[in-house]
Amino acid sequence: MSRTGNSSDTFPIRRFEGRISRNGVWVVDLPMPMGCPLGFPARLVPPVPRPLAMPQDILLSTLNARYLHAAFGLRYLMANLGQLRPRAALVEFDINQSVSEIAESILERNPRILGLGIYIWNVRPTTELIAILKRLRPDLVVILGGPEVSHEPEGQEIVTLADHVITGEADLCFAEVCGRLLGEASGAPRPVPKILHAGLPDLARLELPYDLYDERDIAHRVIYVEASRGCPFTCEFCLSSLDIPVRQFPLDRFLGAMQRLLDRGVLRFKFVDRTFNLHLPTSLAILRFFLERMRPGLFVHFELVPDRLPEALRELIAQFPRGSLQFEVGLQTLNLEVEERISRRQNHARMEDNLRWLRDHSGVHVHADLIVGLPGEDIESFGEGFDRLLALGPQEIQVGILKRLRGTPIVRHDVEWGMVYSPNPPYEVLQTRVLDFPTLGRLKRFAAFWDLFANSGRFSTTLPLLWSAANPQSSAFKAFLAFSDELHRQGVKTSGIALTRQFELLWDHAVRCTRIPPGVIAEALATDYVRSGRNDRPSWWSEEFGRLPSGRSSVASAPARQARHLSETR
Ligand code: B12
Ligand code: SF4
Fold first, then answer.
1. 13-205: in CATH 3.40.50.280
2. What is the location of CATH 3.80.30.20 in the chain?
């Protein structure tokens, strides 16, 4: 049998491609032409017997950002392979693994076609991987897809090395291309262009991929789910601004799949919908679904736009147990001019009202995002926005550095605002007309230390002291920037600091650089120390401060970090 020929002469009778539907009816999987430029006509394929499955014919793979993350996109491709599904396998790696070990593992499976998901976090090691694979197995057909190769593919080394690239949502198109390459239907392989643009698939016709989360995924990984695709907004730094229109998966089928996940013991759901609160009836139905099935440990994460929280949504949200919901809220900037410049629409008054409401009347853990380095935003403007946001009380503020994602229209500001980006992934901004390289470095450290000390929830009693009444003139942003600068001066790195060392560093800074009485600092720090699970006497605690305070109770539903925040805030 040739590697690319049709092997239909070796099949056991009674081995059919297809599946039994939920109501027990035999369904033949059709390669759907929707959105695939190869233009196969919609046709009925009779349930012909297929060859004995060769699981290695097609291998789907990717390098995830960490083991914890599952490749959701690949599972869609696998679920929608139709007749080819028994001849395919999915294997995941992560970017911390060695490229040669990954190559070995792939070659062991001896695939004919290798489909790789390419993202900003894996483009570099995957380029290396393909170079190795192609040397060892020049006949291996490599098909790429994913956001990093879906835009500006020209000139990318990884694209040069690969055989084909399918841009966009390839759920159905990948099956079509594999069918062609394997000579399905026609008996001989047929040519496929190097770059194909998959159109938007009809979500109602997609097989949902949730059964492809296996027991190990359920036990150890984030379970990604989506009820819709696309975003109606046009923020110029974001790839999703190109994903218009918004499309919904049929709600009943989606909720049925969520029920099966719950039945299999999934407790933590992460919705990747760009804006969960866009379509009110759907948002309400999904929230109601989870509320009715609430159980200890159930935790659901949504991304939403902050200025839309109508009363009906609020009523439902308020009923969720503390720590069972997490909202990721993209603010990005609070500077109106910058917002307008990057085509981002946001009603500030409503946003502020909603964030306050969430803080005061719900048990939602709010994770808010800000971006450093947007065109025209200087350090003062960023700091003011940061302080305003902090005052609204989100449990976490993630400070991200602007990235020049391939395909995004943010490049139109390059000349006017002196935008200079790194040529290497993740293409972070290096300097702008109003933020020089050293200042951006300072803000990057601020972001990393903020994550370690504030977002970790470990110092929630002590940190506010840095910008409290003891330092009335100092904004939280300035006070924490001073701490971050001080750590840098001492040569402290932004990662790999032991917890006890973090306590020492904060103690040292607070005592030396603020006017807060040592006893007050020690009391606050000791509260944080005990809450972090320690019961030994820390080096900075002295007899004169008396006994160490006792610990606080935790929040049942939330993961550890979120629980630390929420046990403090109510
Ligand atoms: C989950 C996620 C992560 C996870 C990682 C997941 C993992 N598996 O490792 C985490 C949280 C770590 C993460 C981090 C980041 N992420 Co992220 N993330 C996402 C998110 C929310 C969901 C991805 C997903 O599952 N989507 C749903 C599936 C169905 O879509 P899909 O993955 O795109 O797959 C489809 C197509 O791409 C294609 N496809 C995919 N694989 C393949 C393979 C083949 C062979 C083919 C033919 C086609 C194909 O078909 C699929 C089905 O339609 C997306 C936004 C979004 N909603 O998509 C951003 C997104 C992927 N992330 C993005 C970015 C920028 C980042 C960060 C840089 C953010 C930051 N901090 O600034 C970091 C980088 C991390 C790092 N270490 O460097 C960008 C991608 C940019 C790019 N060019 O890759 C996105 C699109 C967000 C955005 N709108 O800008 N992210
Ligand atoms: S930042 Fe959020 S609202 Fe703006 S385009 Fe991206 S996903 Fe949509």
1. yes
2. 222-435
**Paired strand residues for 397:** 368
The pLDDT tens digits of the residues spanning 225-244 come to 999 999 999 999 999 999 87
Structure tokens at 419: 């935008």
Q: What is the distance between the alpha carbons of residues 242 and 407, in angstroms, rounded to a whole number?
A: 8
Cα-only R_g, the chain: 26
What is the value of pTM for the model shown?
0.90
CA distance 450 to 456: 8
pLDDT digits (tens, 9 = 90+) for 144-189: 999 999 999 989 999 999 999 999 999 999 999 999 999 987 888 8
Amino acid identity at 524? A
CA of 148 to the centre of ligand 1 (A): 9
Q: Cα separation of 257 and 240, whole Å?
A: 25
Does the CB atom of residue 64 touch ligand 1 within 6 A?
A: yes
Residue 411's Cβ-side half-sphere holds a number of Cα atoms within 13 Å equal to 10
Tokens representing residue 5 in the block:
């020929």
CA of 187 to the centre of ligand 1 (A): 36
CA of 64 to the centre of ligand 1 (A): 9
CATH 3.40.50.280, the chain: domain bounds: 13-205
Task: Let me know if domain 222-435 sits in CATH 1.10.3470.10.
Answer: no
